[in-house]
Amino acid sequence: MTAHRIPLSELERGIPFEQRHIGPDTEARAKMLAQVGYGSLEELTAAAVPDVIKDAEALALPAARSEAEVLAELRSLADRNEVLDSMIGLGYYGTFTPPVILRNVMENPAWYTAYTPYQPEISQGRLEALLNFQTMVADLTGLPTSGASLLDEGTAAAEAMALSRRVGKVKNGVFLVDADALPQTIAVIETRAEPIGVEVVVADLSEGIPAEVAERGVTGVLIQYPGASGAVRDIKPVIEQAHELGAIVTVAADLLALTLLASPGELGADIAVGTTQRFGVPMGFGGPHAGYMAVREKFARNLPGRLVGVSLDVDGNQAYRLALQTREQHIRRQKATSNICTAQVLLAVMAGMYAVYHGPQGLRSIAQRTHRYATILATGLKAGGVEVVNEAYFDTLTVRVPGRAAEIVAAAREGGVNLRLVDADQLSIACDETTTRTQLGAVWTAFGVEGDVEALDASAADTLPAALLRTDEYLTHPVFHQHRSETAMLRYLRRLADRDYALDRGMIPLGSCTMKLNGTTEMEPVTWPEFGQLHPFAPAEQAQGYLTLIRELEEQLAEVTGYDKVSLQPNAGSQGELAGLLAVRGYHRANGDEQRTVCLIPSSAHGTNAASAVMAGMKVVVVNTAEDGEIDVEDLRAKIEQHRDELAVLMITYPSTHGVFEEHVADICAQVHDAGGQVYVDGANLNALVGLAKPGRFGGDVSHLNLHKTFCIPHGGGGPGVGPVGVRAHLAPYLPNHPLQPAAGPETGVGPISAAPWGSAGILPISWAYVRLMGGEGLKQATQVAVLSANYVAKRLEPHYPVLYTGPGGLVAHECIIDLRPLTKATGVSVDDIAKRLIDYGFHAPTMSFPVAGTLMIEPTESEDLAELDRFCEAMIAIRAEIEKVGSGEWPADDNPLRNAPHTAAVLGGAWEHAYSREEAVFPAGVSAADKYWPPVRRIDQAYGDRNLVCSCPPMDVYDE
């Protein structure tokens, strides 16, 4: 008997990655297709996807490659990056990520595959970690209320400008920015200010606010502390002068410097902003990093973004949750003052844990060492006759060398060190946690001077002004003192991870959020030093691997979407929206159509759409939604006619937010174009289109993409994300650019959206790898299976729960909405009850009450296998039977497993006086005792937490009261 011969080429490839990424195998797909009523994936998607949008051409992408081959390609790209010792500064610094944090947070799927903690009962670990972050920021800035992170320092400063305008007394004054602020921060503020009519004035504030500016009225002031030049100066007189003018004062502060210097709060600031990058988060060519904002207590309810608060569960136990959620843009929509809908949770957790691990003494020691190196370096330069511009500095020196600056920067580069060229006569040098004696020697050599570190250390005096030294204590909470050993830290991180639910435990079927596999091969290169340790303003010739990867990913995303040009700069979906709308605005203005400011948005759209439109200087006009969930075409036609001369853009999500393919989308686009408007296709649901249809081909002019959805960047517990924007050729001249990197965008661009030229470049290898691993055919198949899985779940649940919206043939797209409102009306069981009961079954709930109140939106994605899909469906069916018991009166409406869910291990002890058994509570149908997930707390009292706002680590006596 002769064995079957398999060609070597096939054996070499091994199992294709698409089979690792896509959960259902061939046999499972056949079962699912039978349930849905179709014979093949092609037949299903032919029926589900309207002919008018289908793209018959195969994606022109390189063929799929194996995991080993893709890692080898990425290694080749990484090797083309030249990582020199960075002494550039400007808000980006070398840092050591403690290996216990690197391995157990950044590289741990228990942390990086979690979702935003909207279900707080199963997010207690990450919420505690964020509370640590908030406490760290609040303590160091001297301001009592900190948010759970913002996108980066530049956008945090822009958010501070908007907050100043909202809460300040001077509504129509200028926003005054310190000339010594980081240049990228100034540029982001200017980008954000112009569309909303805020005038930004940049001035030297070292001698106070210029009289000619004060006379015009000042809404807010932003001061950098220490300055971009490195200067440390007493900013209290400027703050007092600004307050006399009625202005709100923001201080952009370096948190490491604040371990030694008086805090912004002590100096009188109202707001503090900045980045936590240097607290253990790699530079990553610009991101992702956790920005921060802290405010005076009276501004807490006006903070943009997310805020973690302390509340109680129904048993009176301390529990954490997102506080004051009604402030968030997804609720306030066009009334929002910010479009921020995310945070940088994974990076905030890392930065907070860096402080937990080092504690106040460790952080202070790192700061003292950094300052000491700067002082020794400066003393050696002065001894060699070099002029150091500032007498007082923390870590950064600006030196004046008339006519020689470029020559010295080049010489330092030859010696393996990058310095910052300021102009022909000046350069700056920044020290950080990673600075060594060797680097000091290389810098002295570049200047042509000699220095002896030991001798200079003995003679050099610290330069921080005595009057500005910090005297108060910080990080006094026990959490910053209990985890010094690696053993203690390891166990603390494990304990917190065990309190959470992430994709490493099971399915997270969130509609509109696309929680799918984040492949380990895709993730691995992110922590390679060649990608992680590169400064965003390093010379372009040192970043050839990154720039090649960026160019290729831009081209791949353009091919997938049918657009002509893609910018990767926006570091969140909301920022991609803003960039796209600013491109539309720039296009109309270039054509002389400045009156085109109306943005049409369907009532079902995500709240960021409306908020972004307002930030782009547009007027939002809402279009009604028809009973079938699609856009009300008649209302749209009427609104187009009503606003024909003012129409700037229509924003639609496709497939619709209701989870269906709208057949008339091409007609809608044509009507808008006929009226002179543009069409923005929100890319939130692109996972239903890749390989089947291209927004840029069926009528879209611009779209943002969510790489943390469709292209496998993990959600990280609520960030990081990347929100690239794709445009057709006529909008390309108006994409974001950057003042410090000409290659990052067109000269005619709208300015930077993010602080770094390519936003969160450090995680772009994930999406590059995903596309490379899957190839065009694999991407298409992933889309088809995502559509199959959603229809399979819909068909299985339809006999038990009505599916609210369907398209042709009763099919949905990649997600489905089940309507719980009739059940709630009949039994009193709410959508919250079902969501919390799913925890007892070992599941994260689907999306609750969006886009329709009283519903659940389910998106299974392509990565969940049939066993997990069935486990979820069976849990939902079992819950339906439980609801029937409530409806029939077998279980009281106020005492049943749904109303009391979730149930913790603690309920197993003591007396039991419920109408159902302990077993029914904690081991419902299909739940294995051996594999049971135990939530750490019971249902949390949301209202109590908002009434009694506590958003930093509280002493225990707070709860005794």
Task: Tell me what portion of residues adopts beta-strand conformation.
Answer: 5-15%
Main pleated sheet: 7 strands, mixed
Strand order of the largest sheet: 2-8-7-6-5-3-4
| CATH secondary-structure class of the domain at 105-356 | Alpha Beta
Brief overview, please?
The chain has 961 residues and is α/β, with parallel strands linked by helices. It contains 33 helices and 25 strands. The strands form 7 sheets. A 7-stranded mixed sheet has the order 2-8-7-6-5-3-4, with helices on both faces. It has a 4-stranded antiparallel sheet with strand order 11-12-15-14, with helices on one face.
Layout: helices, strands, pairs:
Layout lengths: L7 H6 L3 H5 L4 H11 L4 H8 L18 H13 L5 E2 L12 H8 L2 H4 L11 H18 L3 E2 L6 H15 L6 E5 L4 H11 L6 E4 L7 H4 L3 E8 L10 H9 L3 E6 L10 H4 L3 E5 L15 E5 L12 E5 L5 E5 L6 H4 L12 H39 L3 E2 L7 E5 L4 H10 L2 E2 L1 E2 L4 E5 L6 H11 L5 H7 L26 H13 L21 H4 L5 H4 L11 H18 L3 E3 L5 H18 L7 E5 L4 H9 L3 E5 L9 H10 L4 E7 L11 H10 L3 E5 L19 E3 L20 E3 L36 H34 L18 E4 L1 H7 L3 H10 L6 E2 L6 E4 L7 H23 L29 H5 L19 H6 L9 H4 L1
Parallel strand pairs: 1-13, 3-4, 3-5, 5-6, 6-7, 17-18, 17-19, 19-20
Antiparallel strand pairs: 2-8, 7-8, 9-10, 11-12, 12-15, 14-15, 16-22, 21-22, 23-25, 24-25
